[in-house]
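Hey team,

Filing this mostly as a record. A colleague (T.K.) asked me to run one chain through the structure pipeline before their review meeting, and I want the input and output archived in the tracker in case anyone asks later how it was produced. No errors, nothing strange. Just documentation.

Input sequence:
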Amino acid sequence: MTETQCAGPCAADDDLRVIVDSHARRLDGLEDDVDTLKSGQSAMMERLISIEAQGQERERNRAAQAQDMRNALTSLTQQLAEQTGAQKRQNQLAEDSLHRWRKLAVIAGLLCTVGAAVGSTLLSDQEVASTIWVHWLHLREPWDMPVQGASHAGP
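Output structure:
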C-alpha cells in the first residue's frame, strides 16, 4: 500500500511482508493440519467400512448357521416321525398277528373240547366202542383182552 491509499500512518513494506509471510506460514500449517485430519478421517472411514463389512459377514454367517441348524432340526424331526411311524406300524402288525394266533388258539381249544365231549360220549357206549375198535380199527376190544397169568375156567 502506498501512503496515498492509507488513511492513517502506514506500515512499511517490510513490516507487511513479514506479517504476510507469518500468515502464509500459519495458513500452510493449518492446511497441513487439515490434510492430516482429512487423511485420518479417510483412514477412520475405511476402518469403519471394514468393521461394517466384517459385521455384515458375521451376520450372514450366523444366518447361514441358523438356517443349517433349522434344516438339521427339521430333518431330525422328520426322521423321528418316520421312525415313530415305523415302530407304530410294526407294533400294529405284531398286535394283529397276536390277535390272529389268539383266535386260532380259541378255535383249536373249542374243537378239542367238542371232540373230547363227543369222543367220551361215544366211547362210553359199549356198542359204539366195539364198532370203533373191532370193525374200523380191526383190533380186539381192550376190555376183552385176557389178563396174563389168569386162566378162565368155565362152569
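Quick notes for T.K.: The mean pLDDT is 83. The chain has one domain: 13-144.
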